[in-house]
Amino acid sequence: MEVTVTSKSGQVITCVVRLPHNPVEFAVTFIYAVNCRYGRRRLWQEIEDLAANPLVSDKPWILLGDFNQALDPIDALIH
């Protein structure tokens, strides 16, 4: 398997994946969404930007994440 990171930020890592003996590439975005309103707005804007990027938009694309996972115990508190 060949994995190439195409972009990353504090909330998102996007990769293009190529499996052996298969010419079709696909994009995978791993998401850690912060627990504040403004951070989530930035996340949605980043997802929209990725969707318009030819590195992602020309391929099958999957988004994966655990939106209930806290990075730090303080994140578990309701803001």
Automatic annotation (TrEMBL):
Q: Which Pfam families does the record associate with it?
A: Exo_endo_phos
Coiled-coil positions: none
What's the domain of life for this entry? Answer: Eukaryota
Q: Report the residue ranges that make up the Endonuclease/exonuclease/phosphatase domain in this protein.
A: 21-75
InterPro entries per the record? Endo/exonu/phosph_ase_sf, Endo/exonuclease/phosphatase
Name of the protein in its database record: Endonuclease/exonuclease/phosphatase domain-containing protein
Lineage, uppermost ranks: Eukaryota, Viridiplantae, Streptophyta, Embryophyta, Tracheophyta
